[in-house]
């Protein structure tokens, strides 16, 4: 499966979390765009399909995403 995420359309994934929580295979993860520094809270998080090889193509993520930011082929 090929999973694409429009990170600009997504906005703040930690505010939404629907794809993270709804994916039965827990394919998605998040990481901050900027550099991480000790003692400084990370900001500007983006969604990434960390475990795309586990995707079954169920399309739960696509149907729950309120911003049409995910495509799965
Ligand atoms: S299609 Fe299903 S298994 Fe694949 S990433 Fe989306 S929710 Fe997860
Ligand atoms: S469901 Fe859509 S808007 Fe929500 S975090 Fe995932 S990609 Fe972003």
Structural commentary:
By secondary structure, the protein is α+β, with helices and mostly antiparallel strands. The protein contains four helices and four strands. The chain has helices spanning 7-10, 13-16, 18-22, 60-64; strands at residues 3-5, 28-32, 45-49, 70-72. The chain has a two-stranded antiparallel sheet. It has a two-stranded antiparallel ribbon with strand order 2-3. The longest helix has 5 residues, at 18-22. The structure holds iron/sulfur cluster (2 copies). Residues 5, 10, 13, 16-19, 47, 64-67, 69-70 line the site of one iron/sulfur cluster. The site of one iron/sulfur cluster has 13 residues, from helix 4.
Q: Kindly name the structural category.
A: alpha+beta
Strand fraction: 15-25%
Number of helices, counting only DSSP H or I runs of 4 residues or more: 4
Count the strands?
4
Provide the gyration radius in Å: 12 Å
- Helical proportion, percent range: 10-25%
Output the strand order for the largest sheet.
1-4
| Overall pLDDT confidence | 95
Quick one: overall form?
A: globular
Order of helices and strands: EHHHEEHE
Q: Class, according to the CATH hierarchy?
A: Alpha Beta
The low-pLDDT segments are: none
Count of discrete domains: 1
What CATH architecture label applies? 2-Layer Sandwich
Topology of helices and strands:
Blueprint: E1 3-5, H1 7-10, H2 13-16, H3 18-22, E2 28-32, E3 45-49, H4 60-64, E4 70-72
The protein binds iron/sulfur cluster (2 copies).
């Amino acid at each position: 499966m090929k999973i694409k995420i429009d990170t600009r359309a997504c906005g703040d994934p930690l505010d939404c979390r629907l794809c993270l929580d709804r994916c039965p295979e827990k394919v998605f993860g998040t990481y901050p765009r900027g550099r991480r520094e000790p003692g400084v809270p990370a900001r500007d998080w983006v969604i990434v399909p960390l475990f795309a090889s586990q995707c079954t193509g169920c399309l739960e993520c696509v149907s729950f995403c309120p911003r049409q930011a995910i495509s799965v082929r």
